[in-house]
Amino acid sequence: SAGAVNKSEVECLIKLFDVLVAKSSSRCAAVGFDRNMFRDTLHSAFGMTDDMIMDRVFRTFDRDHNSYISVLEWVEGLSVFLRGTLEERIKYCFEVYDLNGDGYISREEMFQMLKNSLDYDHDGKLSFMDFEKAVRDENLLLEAFGPCLPDIK
Q1: Is residue 153 situated within a structural domain?
Q2: What's the pTM?
Q3: What are the protein's UniProt keywords (predicted)?
Q4: Distance, CA of 13 to CA of 6 (rounded, Å)
């Protein structure tokens, strides 16, 4: 549901993608961004520095898990960054922090990222519902999840 991004914004994102890919000397540029290019881009465009988070963002963008970000994945991923509803952003953050992709954030995963446990239903893990409740109740999204939602000027 990236419908909130308008046509000229999409064209802008595609142009940016092309420019960045063209700058890269990598022979796989035709396929899209590899992990290093993507990391450089997150760093230069959004000032992100945390390697672990950038790696997670890469995996979240890379929907088909082929280790490249295609132009489509780039546009879809960035439209959540730029124009996502609160719901979409919460879902995005959840994916970033669900390190093993099992649909739960374990205490270890949470600890990695937040350094304190959000044990809503006391089973030691967080489902999407728990996570969403925590984010809505505490407005954690803005503070704790700042690092994975870049500030775009």
Answers
A1: no
A2: 0.66
A3: Calcium, Metal-binding, Repeat
A4: 11
